[in-house]
Amino acid sequence: MPKITVVLVLALLMGIQPVTTDLYLPALPAIAEGFGASMAQAQYTLSSLLLAFGISQLAWGPLSDRFGRKPILLVGLTMYTLAAIGAAWADSIELLITWRVWQGLSMGAVVMCGRALVRDLYNPVEGAQVMSQGLTGLGVLACFSPTLGGFLAEHISAKAALLAMAVFGALSLALIAIFFKESVQQKNLRALEPESMLRNWWNILKNPTFLTYSALSSASFAVLFVFLAMSSFVFIKIFGFSSARYGLIMFGMSANYIAGTFLCRWLLRRRGITQTVAIAGGISIFGGSLMGALWLVGVTSFWAILFPFYLIALGHGIHQPCGQTGAIAPFGKAAGTASAVNGFLMMVLAFTTGTWLSQHGDGSVKPMVIGVWFWTACIAAVAWLAVQKYGYQDAKQ
């Protein structure tokens, strides 16, 4: 495929994640009230989806190494569209959680293949640049998803926001069927053999470069998850924002993320991966510490939450392309499996974070601030220590 086609396909595949998580966030408080559910139950519609998303990749990865990316994408997108329709017509919070789990299972195939196809086609540094371009497209979808979700929730219904995901899934299915060309040049015929799978997993999990970049992408996603899980309740319930106004806040966050992907490409060309990640680590810890310091001194304005997180979103736009491509780069013949394990680790950490948030929610901004501060400190530690030791040192590698 031409590079522009790869970037557009990558944006579509990676973009299914913010569509699935961000689009319904403005409707989440209304969904909880409509079902008579608690905030913790409503948050499980997000955290259970991400846990299923993470676990499913362990199966989708070897399957894609064996049969290729395109068949797995077609199956995954079909499942996703059907699950989204089911979620839109769920009549209880328990049934909604069930359908969201199925969405997560199918979404695992889509995002995993997106990460893997970059390794199929490019070396580490060029792959990070292509991934950052694809994630710019993800950022555009992330910009408009909560805005659209807020409009649908406020002017039509909360279920309309859920149904919009089915429309996205059906359109993505059609586009992949028509335009996507298989990126796996040589399928691994032994990828599904138990002995081969265990050997691949062991080789991946003992690789220090994989662990380093997986830690980076996982910690960066965890801090984003804190914001995704808490922000609708914080801004709508605590600060009194409308669903539409909350959508604009998410638009601004995604715009900063997009700026981060552009900054990522600019830095990669001049500094290489390790220095780029180190700079982004400084941005992340500054944003997290600013939020924590303002909270400690009693500043309660919504800007004390929003402005620091916009800085963190900027760093997130650098950490994700570098972390996701860096983790998979050592495994040319097992890119699908490596992508799956990386995605699994990211989602397990997100689910653990979501569980902690649901257990410590007290109706204030405190859990969000603590979670953000903690994970930005972890990002900085990985970026400044582990990446400098185990990352790709040659900018032209």
How would you sum up this structure, described in words?
The chain is globular and about 55 Å long. It has 13 helices and no strands. It has one domain: MFS general substrate transporter like domains (Growth Hormone, Chain: A, Up-down Bundle). The two termini are 22 Å apart. Helix 3 runs antiparallel to helix 4 (69-88) and helix 3 packs parallel to helix 5 (93-121). The longest helix is centred in the C-terminal third of the chain and has 54 residues, at 243-296. The protein has 397 residues and is an all-alpha fold. It has helices at residues 3-22, 28-35, 39-67, 69-88, 93-121, 124-155, 158-179, 194-205, 208-238, 243-296, 303-328, 335-360, 366-390. The model has no long low-confidence stretch (mean pLDDT 87).
Enter the CATH topology name: Growth Hormone, Chain: A
Q: Helix/strand/pairing class, anyone?
A: mainly alpha
Distance between the termini: 22 Å
The domain count comes to 1
Number of helices: 13
Describe the global form. globular
**Average pLDDT, to the nearest integer?**
87
In the CATH hierarchy, what is the superfamily? MFS general substrate transporter like domains
Provide the β-strand percentage band.
under 5%
Q: Measured on Cα atoms, how large is the radius of gyration?
A: 20 Å
Order of SSEs, N→C? HHHHHHHHHHHHH
* Number of E-state strands: 0
Instruction: Flag low-confidence runs.
Output: none
**What is the CATH-assigned architecture?**
Up-down Bundle
Helix content: over 70%
